[in-house]
Amino acid sequence: MKNRSLSISNSDILMRSFLIKSIKFVFTCLVAYYFIVFSYNSIDIRQRFKKINGHRLLILGDSQLQRLETDLVGDSTYNFASSGEFYLVTYHKLLRLIDQNPGKFNAVLLGISVHSFAPTYNRLMNVDFFDGQSSLERYFYFLPLSESWTFAHHEPSRLFKSIDKTTEWGGAFSSVRSNPDSSIINETLRSHYGIQKNEGRFCDEQSLYLKKIDSLCIAKQIRLVLVTCPYHQDYLSKVDSSYIVHYQTVLSSLRTKAHISFLDDRVRPEWMSDACHLNRSGSAVYSMRIKQALDSINQTVYFP
Q: 4-13, pLDDT tens digit by residue?
């Protein structure tokens, strides 16, 4: 009986030892996998940043800026905007570009709109929302690890989940859709200004990082030009006036005063793909107007 007990005890010990070794092996494999993926993707992103060398004007911002043509200053323009991009990401993109490409570019065309400070950006910047979780995955490799850790609310699982996700690089985008109907416009309004979980009416983080971008560009002698793309008139007419006032207040607080605005334009519906975005025809028209505006604020000085 004693021998049988001893045999069972030894068997249990062997089983536990096997399980511990198996767990350690799996854990080591997972750590190795994520380390390799992280290293590969980090190097890839770094190389892609280096390829931006030679472009004198960078287009940055959200999807409204993606619709602009990429020849605003000939071959020296690079469109680096992306859908739903918030200024925290833009700020860190700029920091990395300055670090990797010192003196290689000297002007930034940055989007700013009424909805840039709307509740939708509170959700995009908060992992308690699906939009925020998606943002972390899309922009993980643009952010320093310390920033990602804070963004992830100090939850390692969210960081690991982001490591092997595809980075949202962005770039120019065009659409041939036109004449959006009222259902598309109303859905966009709900998406931008609807409050889902008691988030604030305005996104203060957007204002904070826009001011950081403003200060960074001044410190590094990079010409910052803000641009406000047009909205469909049916959209703009339904926006609560407090958001327009807030947008104007943030604008006036910036040291940068170079601002190209089409906010008050009664843009043709056939030039809009939806409530907020120009289609291919609209882009051709407004890209030309931006070129003319850049000339009028003496942008040629910055592109020898």
A: 554 556 777 7
Sign of the torsion angle spanned by Cα atoms 40, 104, 99, 166: negative
- CA-CA distance, 32 to 27, in Å (whole number)? 9
Domain boundaries, the chain: 52-302
Cβ atoms of 123 and 131 closer than 8 Å? yes
Cα atoms in the 13 Å half-sphere on the side-chain side of 190: 7
| pTM given for the model | 0.89
How many degrees, rounded to 5, is the angle at CA 260 between CA 257 and CA 261?
110
155-180 pLDDT per residue, tens: 888 998 999 998 999 999 999 999 99
For 52-302, CATH gives 3.40.50.1110
Contact 205, 178 (CB under 8 A): no
Task: List the structure tokens of 22.
Answer: 């198996």
Is the separation of the CB atoms in 117 and 207 below 8 Å? yes
Which amino acid, 10?
N
- Cα angle 125-126-129, degrees, rounded to a multiple of 5: 120
Rounded CA gap, 7 and 71, in Å?
A: 79
C-beta separation of 232 from 274 below 8 A: yes
